Amino acid sequence: MNIAVLALAAALAAAPSDELTLTAKSVNVSQPGAPVTIKILRWSTDEERAPMLAALNPAPAQRAGLPAEAGRNANPAPAGRGAVAGRGRGRGRGGPAAPINPIAAFAAALGRAPTLGYIWTNDITGYSIKYAWRSALPDGAERIVLASDRRLGAYSDAWKPLAAETDYAFTLLELRVESNKLIEGKTSLTNKIVVDAEAKTIALENYAAAAASLAPTSAAGKPPRPSR
Q1: H or E stretch at 177
Q2: Is 191 exposed, middle or buried (0-12, 13-18, 19+ CB in 10 A)?
Q3: Interatomic CA distance for residues 189 and 170, integer angstroms
Q4: Mean pLDDT across 138-155
Q5: HSE on the CB side for 58, CA within 13 Å?
Q6: What's the rounded Cα separation, in Å, for the pair 211 and 227?
Q7: Helix (H, G, I), strand (E, B) or coil at 153
Q8: Nearest of 20, 33, 7, 37 to residue 127 by alpha carbon
Q9: pTM of structure
Q10: CA distance 13 to 5
Q11: DSSP type of residue 208
């Protein structure tokens, strides 16, 4: 029995961990060079990612401000006596629902997600990671997408971008990583977010053309690769 227990403990110790720690520094912001530590404890499951993907890419009926069931009863029966439909009293009870704002819906879904890790800068508190996805690239590097429900620089101007900025209350980070070390990182501070339908993840729009927000902590080693 003792041998079996020791064998199991050894197997567990040898098993690869989903945890990942990355270090970086800020670039292209008002106070560049700020240290950044990213600690990922685990990755989002398909079930955890689904509400955020759906929020950012709603069905056509939802985009129009209609419930998903709209259209099932295209010819409702006439209203009976006492019905208020069509009386136009200004309360809006019979009017169409307001159009869904995909960004607001995404932010709400992100806030409800479990915490999967943390981002530490020289702000007074860290940032919770609520979305974490990764995929291997053909050249052996990894594409990693993270999202926090708060905007980087929420407590200071250190992260104010030099370029035109978005007004998102959250932060999405898209990273390129090789051998568990950061190659480059770009964020939603200056870039719009979209759904990458092929990869089934949230992503930055036109990553290759986006300005970097994170760089490796050391200039030593391989030079940064072209964005992809």
Answers
A1: strand 171-178
A2: buried
A3: 9
A4: 94
A5: 19
A6: 10
A7: coil
A8: 37
A9: 0.75
A10: 12
A11: G
Name the residue ranges covered by the structural domains of the chain.
16-58+101-228
Q: Which residue is it, tokens 């030593």?
A: 220
Can you tell me the distance from the alpha carbon of 74 to that of 82, in angstroms, rounded to the nearest whole number?
Answer: 22
For the record, the structure tokens of 44 come out as 């989002």
17 pLDDT band (50/70/90 cuts)? low
199's tokens? 């990869």
Question: How far is the C-alpha of 27 from the C-alpha of 162, rounded, in Å?
Answer: 9
What's the DSSP call for residue 189?
A: T
Q: Are 142 and 136 in contact (CB under 8 A)?
A: yes
Burial label, 36 (beta-carbon count in 10 A; 0-12, 13-18, 19+)? buried
Residue type, 180: N
Structure confidence at residue 73 (pLDDT) = 47
Q: What pLDDT is stored for residue 157 in this prediction?
A: 87
Q: 135 is written with which tokens? A: 């995929």
Mean pLDDT (whole number) for 71-90: 46
User: How is residue 19 written in tokens?
Assistant: 């945890």
